[in-house]
């Protein structure tokens, strides 16, 4: 049986699509900033061991943030594809409708809250 998604009208679908695109653009901009900051940290000449440790920590922190952002970017791209395929709003695991409140908070979510919790408990 094909996945029909939530019965959203075109206006609602456009609202979610716009939210996803705005968030995607924010992430791309921030990733670019992180990359530039990371390069600056790398090129700064550290004068002592404490400076070097702080510089290393700062660079590691910036790069770890970008990993989280990259994952969210992947999820946003997947959500945009689900919109194109008219599958947006359905849980990718159980095929049930995702709660609107959840979709408003996390428009890139692929799972209903129950399946998300199940998925997280299996990976931890």
Description:
The protein is an all-alpha fold and 124 residues long. 70% of the residues lie in helices and 0% in strands. Helix 1 (10-43) packs antiparallel against helix 2 (49-84). It is elongated and about 60 Å long. It starts with 9 loop residues before the first helix and ends with a helix.
CATH top level is Mainly Alpha
What is the residue-mean pLDDT, rounded to a whole number?
A: 80
What is the distance, rounded to the nearest whole angstrom, between the alpha carbons of the first and last residues? Answer: 31 Å
The structure class reads mainly alpha
Number of domains: 1
CATH architecture: Up-down Bundle
Name the helix and strand elements from N-terminus to C-terminus, one letter apiece. Answer: HHHH
Proportion in β-strands: under 5%
- Unreliable runs: 1-5
Quick overview of this protein structure:
This protein has 124 residues and is mainly α. It has four helices and no strands.
Give the key terms.
124 residues, mainly alpha, Four Helix Bundle (Hemerythrin (Met), subunit A), 4 helices, elongated
Layout of strands and helices, then pairs:
Elements: H1 10-43, H2 49-84, H3 100-105, H4 113-123
Helix pairs in contact: 1-2
């Amino acid at each position: 049986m094909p996945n029909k998604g939530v019965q959203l009208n075109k206006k609602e679908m456009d609202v979610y699509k716009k939210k996803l695109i705005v968030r995607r653009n924010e992430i791309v901009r921030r990733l670019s900033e992180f990359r530039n900051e990371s390069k600056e940290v790398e090129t700064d000449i550290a004068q002592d061991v404490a400076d070097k440790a702080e510089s290393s920590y700062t660079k590691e922190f910036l790069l770890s943030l970008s990993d989280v952002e990259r994952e969210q970017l992947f999820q946003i791209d997947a959500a945009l594809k689900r919109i194109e395929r008219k599958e947006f709003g359905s849980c990718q695991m159980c095929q049930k409708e995702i709660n609107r409140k959840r979709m408003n908070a996390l428009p890139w979510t692929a799972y209903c809250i129950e399946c998300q919790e199940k998925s997280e408990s299996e990976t931890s």
